[in-house]
Amino acid sequence: MATTPPSTAAGRAAFADATASDATLRRFLHGLPGVDAVGLEARAAALGTRSIKTTAKAYALDLAISMIDLTTLEGADTAGKVRALGTKAVHPDPTDPETPKVAAVCVYPDMVATAKQAVGGSGVKVASVATAFPAGRAALEVKLADVRDAVAAGADEIDMVIDRGAFLSGRYLKVYEEIAAVKQASGAARLKVIFETGELSTYDNIRRASWLGMIAGADFIKTSTGKVAVNATPANTLLMLQAVRDFRTQTGVQVGVKPAGGIRTAKDAVKFLVLVNETAGGDWLDNHWFRFGASSLLNDLLMQRQKLSTGRYSGPDYVTVD
Amino acid sequence: MSDKSAKAPQKPAKPGRSAKAAKKDQPGTGAGTATAPARPGRLAVFKTYKLYVGGKFPRSESGRVYEVTDSEDQWLANAPRASRKDARDAVVAARKAFGGWAGKTAYNRGQILYRVAEMLEGRREQFTEEVAAAEGLSRAAAAEVVDAAVDRWVWYAGWTDKVAQIVGGGNPVAGPFFNLSSPEPTGVVTVLAPQESSLLGLVSVLAPVIATGNTAVLVASEKAPLPALSLAEVLATSDLPGGVVNILSGRTEELAGPLAAHQDVNALDLTGAEDPQLAKALEVAAADNLKRVLRPGTDGDWHADPGTHRLTAFLETKTVWHPTGSLGASGSAY
C-alpha cells in the first residue's frame, strides 16, 4: 500500500508539464477519456444488487460504522450538540461496548476546539470544513485564514470546497492553485477536497475535477457538501473510485474517497462498500482511505447491528436522537 | 396451498385450473379474480393481489405468493406471501405516518373514517362476491356482511371525537390543581385479523385501532386474505394518509413472530392467533418492550354490538396537573 502523501514532490512531479499553465492543464483534463454515462450507471446499479448477509453483513456494518465522519454542519449548532456528537462518536452504542468508534466528527471551524475536547484521547479524529464552506465564495486569503484557524484549533482533517464557479468557467489553474495553497496551509492535517458533484453537471466534469484535485495534493476526494439537492450517488462515487485507482496505478500515490450527503440507510452504505471493493480494491476498505460523510446513517447502522445481535428488529427509540 | 415463485404469479397459465375457475365463475362466486369474459372471445383480466404498505401496493419483497382457495377448495387467486422484511417495512411506514395521524383532530379522523365507509359502500358488489367466495356464504348473506362492515366503519367514525369524553376528564384532587386526564394513541399497533370473518371481523378490529389515532400493521386472515387486500384499495382512495394502515397477507405465524418481537411496535392485537401456543409465544415476545397486548380469546359474533373495549384497548392516559393558585373561601379556585 502506497502511503506517500501526494503533496510530495514525487507525487506531483509527473504532472509538472500539465500544471504549467491554464492551457496545458485544460488540455490534460480534457484529454481524459470521456465517461460512458449509461455504462457507469448500469455498473453502479449492478453492484448494488449484491446480497450481503450474516457474517459478511456483520463485518460490513462494523466497517461502515468505523468509516463514518459523524457530521453536524448547521447554523444552529451549539457547543452542547457538538459535545453530544463527540460522545456518540466514541461510544456509538452505549449498550454494546464492542461497537467500533466512528472515524471522525466533522464540524465547523469554530466548533473544532469543543469537538477536540469531546473526543479526548479516544482516537476519533476531528475534521473541520473550511474555505467558506459550503459556497466557497470568498477571497483566497479569507479561505486560508479559515483553514489556519481550524488547524490551530486542533483539526486533524480539513474539508475544503473547490471554487465551482472557476471550475465550470474553465479556469482550472485557479482551482488547482487554490487547492495547493490550502494543502500547504493545512500542514499536517489531511485534506479532503469537496467537488460538489451535484453542481458539476456532467460525469466528465466529475472525472476532471477528481484528477485536478489529486494532482493538486488532495488526500481525500469528496463528493458533496450535503447542502445541495444531489449529493453522493453510487454512480458518481464509482467514478471517483475509478479515478483514485487509476491515479495510484499511474503515480503510486493513494488517495481516499468520501461520499457525503444522502446516505441514510445501512443498505446504502453496504452498497457503497461493494463499490469500493470491486472498483478500487480491498486496500481502500479502511477508514484511512474511505469515509462516509453522514449523520443519520449511524443510527440505521446501529439498529441493524442490534437486529443482528438480538434477532429482533430495533427501533428509533433505542438509538440517540441527534 | 402451496407456494409458488413470483415468476408465474398468475394461475391461468395452467389450462386445467383456469377452465375450472371459469366454469364455476357464475355471478356471485367469482371473488373478482377469475372474472369470466363477459362477451365470448374477450380475454379475462385477472387481478394481481398485492400488499398495502405506506400507501403503495408492492409485491412481497420475497417474491413469494400462495394460492387462495374458496370454501370448497377451488382456486380463487394468488395472494402475496409477505416475509418478515415486508413486516419490517410496514412498521417503518406505520411509524412514519403516526405523528401526522395522531396529530389530526379527532373530528377530522372521523370524517376520514366515514369516507372509508362511503368508498366501501360504492364497492358493495365486489366485496359481496369476495366475501361469498371466501366464507362460503350465499350472495344474500354476504351482502348482509358487507352492509354490516360499512355500518361498522360509520360506528367507529362517530366514536373518534367521543372517546376522550368516555375515558378522559377532570379528576378531583386534594390540592390547588386542575387535574385533567386525556387519552392518547399508543403508537404502532400490530393487528392479527380474525381468521374466519374476512371482512366484518377485519373491519371490527382495524377501525377501532385507527379511530383513536394509532397506526396499524394488519396481518390479514391467512385463509381468506382477498377481502383485506381489496379493502386496501378502498383505504387508498379515502383520504387516509399512506402508512396509517398497512396490510400484509401470508402465514400468520411467520409474520406475527417478528412483529411481536419488533422493538418499534407498541401494541399487539392477538385476535387472529387461534392457536393458544402461538398466542402465548407472541405474548412472551411482546413483553420484551412492554407492548400492550389484547388477547380476546374467542371473539365470536362479529354482528353483535361491538362496545368500546377495542377502542380503549390501545390508549395511553396523559394526566396534566395545572396549578390554579390558592383555594378561595368556597374551596374552589375556579
TrEMBL record, chain A:
Question: Which lineage do the record's taxonomy fields give for this organism?
Answer: Bacteria, Bacillati, Actinomycetota, Actinomycetes, Kitasatosporales
Which keywords appear in this protein's UniProt record, sorted alphabetically?
Lyase, Schiff base
The highest taxon in the source lineage is Bacteria
SUPFAM superfamilies in UniProt: Aldolase
Question: Which reaction is recorded as catalysed by this protein?
Answer: 2-deoxy-D-ribose 5-phosphate = D-glyceraldehyde 3-phosphate + acetaldehyde
Q: Which residues form a coiled coil?
A: none
What the record says about family reads: Belongs to the DeoC/FbaB aldolase family. DeoC type 2 subfamily.
Which NCBIfam families does the UniProt record give?
deoC (TIGR00126)
The gene behind this protein is deoC
Q: In which pathway does it act?
A: Carbohydrate degradation; 2-deoxy-D-ribose 1-phosphate degradation; D-glyceraldehyde 3-phosphate and acetaldehyde from 2-deoxy-alpha-D-ribose 1-phosphate: step 2/2
EC numbers: 4.1.2.4
Give the transmembrane ranges. Answer: none
- What name does this protein carry? Deoxyribose-phosphate aldolase
Under the heading InterPro entries, the entry gives:
Aldolase_TIM, DeoC, DeoC/FbaB/LacD_aldolase
The top EC class is lyase
Q: Which PANTHER family match?
A: DEOXYRIBOSE-PHOSPHATE ALDOLASE
UniProtKB/TrEMBL annotation, chain B:
Gene3D superfamilies named among the record's database cross-references: Aldehyde Dehydrogenase, Chain A, domain 1
Q: What is the species of this protein?
A: Streptomyces physcomitrii
Q: Mind telling me which InterPro entries this protein's record contains?
A: Ald_DH/histidinol_DH (IPR016161), Ald_DH_N (IPR016162), Aldehyde_DH_dom (IPR015590)
Alphabetical list of PANTHER family matching this protein: ALDEHYDE DEHYDROGENASE-RELATED
- Annotated region (Disordered), positions in chain: 1-39
* Annotated ranges, domain Aldehyde dehydrogenase: 62-293
| Pfam families in UniProt | Aldedh
Q: Alphabetically list the UniProt keywords.
A: Oxidoreductase
Q: What is this protein called?
A: Aldehyde dehydrogenase
S-adenosyl-L-methionine found in the keyword field: no
Q: Which domain of life is it from?
A: Bacteria
Q: What is the lineage of its organism?
A: Bacteria, Bacillati, Actinomycetota, Actinomycetes, Kitasatosporales
